[in-house]
Structures are given as C-alpha cells and as structure tokens.
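Schema walk-through. Below, the input block comes first and the output block second. Nothing else is stored per chain. Lengths vary across the set, and this one has 260 residues.
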Amino acid sequence: MEWFDTHAHLFDEGLLPQIEDVLSRADEAGVKTMVAIGTTLEDSRICVELAERFPQVYASVGIHPNHSAEAKEGDLDAVESLMTHPKVVAIGETGLDRYWDFAPIELQKEYLQWHVEKSRQYQKPLVIHMRECEQDIVEWLEASKADGPLSGILHSYTGNVELAELGVACGMHISFAGMLTFKRNQELRDVAKTIPLERLLVETDCPYLSPEPCRKQRPNEPALVVHTGTCLAGERGMEPAELARVTTNNARKLFGIQST
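--- output ---
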C-alpha cells in the first residue's frame, strides 16, 4: 500500500530539525511521496532544498494569503525564479482567508490572481487555501471560467457539496485532511463521499490537524495521512489499499510525477 501526502509544511520548526526521522516514519507507514508546501519566500526556498535532498519530497512555492501583507518588494519575483526548478511541481499555497485579519482581502485577491497567472504560464497546478471565504471562492471560480479550465487543489477541504462540484467543474481536485476524521464532522464526510474518485486526494496539512486516533499528537506529520485515508476509504465503502492506489495515482498525474 502506497500513500501520497499532497500537503506538508515540512519547514515547520517542529518537523525540520527531525526531518530524517519524519521521513523514515512516513516510509514505514507507506507514505512514499509528499509535497512540501511553501507559504513565504523563505520557506519556499526551504521546500526546494528539501526536495533536492530527498527523492520522495517535491515542492510547491508561493506566498500564503495570510503572509501577503508582509511580503517584501521582490519576493514574488524571487518565488517565480523557483518555479522552473524540476522538483517544483505546484504553485502556492495561495488562496483567500477571512478568518484571520493578517492581510486586506483585496490584497489577498491580487496575490491569488498572480499565482493563477503563474500556474497557467508554467503549467503547474495551484494549491488553494480557503477559510471562511466560500462566497469569495465561488466568485473566483466563476470568474476564472472565462480563461479556461484551472488545474489545482482545493486543499484541506471543509466546504459544502455545491462548492466542491463547482471546483471539480472548473478543473480542481479536492483534498481532505485530518478534519475529515473528527467525530463532529459527519457532514464533511458526507461531502467527501460525493467527490469523483479521479479528483480525490488526501493530505496531512502538517504540522496542523492531526487526525483521529492521533489527534493529540503534535506536530502532525506525513505518516499520519494513513488515518485520514483509511477514514475516507471507510466512508466510501472501499478498502484502504484501493483508496491509497487511487489517490496516489491522482496525485502523481496532477503533479506530473512518474511512478517509482
């Protein structure tokens, strides 16, 4: 059984100092590939460095909406310079966030559009963050239709069925993290059952969102994506091995990563 963690913040201070052990535990759990997700210029560079050191690690580079106001002049150009690296397989984490008040929403939208343009230019999928901004994401997806299909992920998905359907119709994949396993989130599990298999992904979003039955473990790490995947398999009436095969193949196809 082989799993793919599509969203891991491996630069986190709880993970980076023990990165060899983190990757060893992932390998033992069957998590053979992962994408390290950048949120600033500095940690995007770390993600690329990790991708260069470890064959099972790939990188996504970008500036998170909550960091858009603190980005310095020249940061976007420097992030763009990383996008042609052969192990950079995605653009982001970008998106929108109305939960935190770290950056004006209009500035977040400008940064999101910049990442969309780079995704189309470099033909690499987007990694989209969304928190308490479903109507903004609906409007963005609807507006994007005029420029053709998108490619990317609505990551750590917590939205409703209608938004998921719109995302899929616009070319996006839907990725579920540890929140799927929380006892109170049956509504989210019901949404997960509606996603077309060929657009389904799993992730940890580590170091956050440790899944049940390891919810007290801090930090979360790629090895634990197995629990989210197993929960999702149960909800869909599938064997975990089959869901692992499907989601890993989906991730490899989306990111353009050959099977090992």
